[in-house]
Amino acid sequence: MLDSATRHRLFGVRDALEHPVVAGAPIVAGAALFAALVAITVLTRAGRIGAETSRELLRRTFSWCVLAPLMLGPVLLGSAWVIAGVFLLSLFCYREYARVTGLFRMRLVGAAVALGIGLVTFAALDHWYGFFTALAPLGVALIAVVAMAGDEPKGYVQRVALGVLGFLLFGVGLGHLGFLANDADYRPILVLVVSAVQLNDVFAFLAGKALGRRRLCRNTSPGKTVAGALFSLAMTTTLVVLVGRLVFAEGAMSRWPNLLALGAIASVSGQLGDLMLSSIKRDVGRKDTGRAIPGHGGLLDRFDSLLLAAPAIFHFLAYVRGIGDGQARRIFTGGGVP
Amino acid sequence: MTLARFEYLPARDLGLTLLQRLRSPAREPDLFETAIHWTWWTAVRAYLRVFHRLSIGGLENLPARPPFILAANHTSHLDALVLASGIRRRDRDRAHPLAAEDTFFERPFRAFFAAAFVNALPVMRGAPRRHDWERLRSRLLEERCVYVVFPEGTRSRTGRLGAFRAGIGMLAAGTPVPVVPCHVSGAFEAWPSGRRLPRPRKITLRIGRPLVFAGESDRKSGWLRVAERCREAVATLSPRSRDRSPE
After folding, report:
1. Nearest-CA residue of chain A relative to B16?
2. What is the rounded average pLDDT of the residues B11-15?
3. Which of A104, A107, A300 to substitute to test the interface with B, most B CBs within 10 Å?
4. What is the rounded average pLDDT for all residues in chain A?
5. pLDDT (tens digit, 9 = 90+) per residue, B129-173?
6. A247-288: per-residue pLDDT in tens?
7. pLDDT tens per residue, range A185-235
8. Would the pTM of this model clear 0.95, i.e. be above it?
9. In a mutagenesis test of the B interface, which of A89, A92, A105 is the best target, namely the one with the most B β-carbons within 10 Å?
10. B18-244 CATH
11. Chain B residues whose beta carbon lies within 8 Å of the beta carbon of residue A115
């Protein structure tokens, strides 16, 4: 049923390291983590950072030593693995969100969101964009209907609102990351997008501690400064422009203004995603969403910046250069229409 | 003017590590665990029906809605599976067998199985710690769940019904929560203590009329009276007359 090109995109590893950006990613990540460990050790021994800060930074760095291969592995193994990885990430992020808000006690709403995430994953795997976009309104409708079960109108708006927010953020929002894997150049694009958004966090974390006093959002996230936000905007945009020249060697995306815009979108949407999760946590009254990742908190504390960045970047790229052009569409439901 | 706050009720076990969470009496099943429970109990029920020809009598005695406590004799590891299988499907995700902490929750793999599959909650054996039982009792009332309790505290090595301990009284005395006496017969012959694997023996679950101890005093004397009345009710369900006097 699958043609050889599609099978190769989904599961092929033969040319996984062909693109220089993909081949360089494990080396750069390994070198950066090693450098971080050396820097933390040196700064600690020199007395420039306290023991508690040092432990915190080491925990974060060791967690990255596990996270980096987990994020890079599916990209190297094939687009089916990327989509499966995004599916699991969506489910685990929704699980944390539901536990923090208490929505997990609404079993039917949870089941509807899980079904929606499954269908978003199927639409991405099938490369069926029409169904993928239809799932947002259909998912909202399904949640609104199942929340009526039990004939308990009290709390209905809260059940629906929390369910819809969860589905749109973790199902549809993160699902865009999976749909990106339908592009012929998905490997370098995903390496660029994910590393830009994650490094944007690292820049903001470091700059927030070192730069500026003017707070960005005092009530929402007191650790973030305006200078830190601008610094990470500048750094991430520079990174995207430099690496983007290698990823998008030709076509509309190879032009400087588009690369600059992509960098700015990655940084701003990443920081807004971070602030959005901070707003949720402040409203609920929790500092972290869990303890899944030592030094970071929960999965959501680590991947919050992708929630808004994934759809924003996806639609920018789709507008400027297209996503998945030339690849078979509706692989399973339509016989792989080119 | 701002919209009124939503009322959030985060999971009670939020902020615990995975292992702490598995061992916590405050653990609440999430989406994944609910899916595991549903699959697990469906498989267990099928196993019991086929391998042990499980028959259940007195289902009409189960209260229509939780909370309630199932109190039964204990001769085999199969008992908790048999009792939980008797609970209505819609209440099964809220059913918690109370299991010995030292046996089921010390080793990580066993704790994972007891928590993720069986949905068991840990209780300390030996001298009852009132604080632990009070926490279990308030959870029973607030969350309207089902506890599966073996008031003898351990499996009988002879198959005969032993004395009931005060823990059941600490859960039920002075509350409107009904205690449903149950008797499992055949489990001892199928899988007694000391045997590695179960044998295909017929198992029967008898469910008695619920008892309510709302008027009973929440003190040691009251707990012991509750324990004794529960034991009598369980013994009455036993097909063997020798169970009607303490071991």
Report:
1. A291
2. 89
3. A104
4. 93
5. 778 888 899 999 988 899 999 999 889 898 889 999 989 999 999
6. 998 899 999 999 999 999 999 999 999 999 999 999 998 888
7. 999 999 999 999 999 988 888 887 777 778 888 888 888 889 889 999 999
8. no
9. A105
10. 3.40.1130.10
11. none
Task: Work out the number of other CB atoms within 10 angstroms of the CB of residue B156.
Answer: 19
Q: What residue ranges do the domains of chain A occupy? A: 82-183
Residues in chain B with CB shorter than 8 Å from the CB of A102 are 8-11
Nearest-CA residue of chain B relative to A112? Answer: B31
Residues in A whose CB is inside 8 Å of some CB of B read 91, 94-95, 98-102, 104-105, 107, 110-111, 114, 155, 158, 161-162, 283-286, 288, 290-291
- Residue B102: pLDDT above 90? no
DSSP three-state, residue B171:
helix
Please judge whether B6 and A162 are an interchain contact, meaning their C-beta atoms are less than 8 angstroms apart: yes
Domains of chain B, residue spans: 18-244
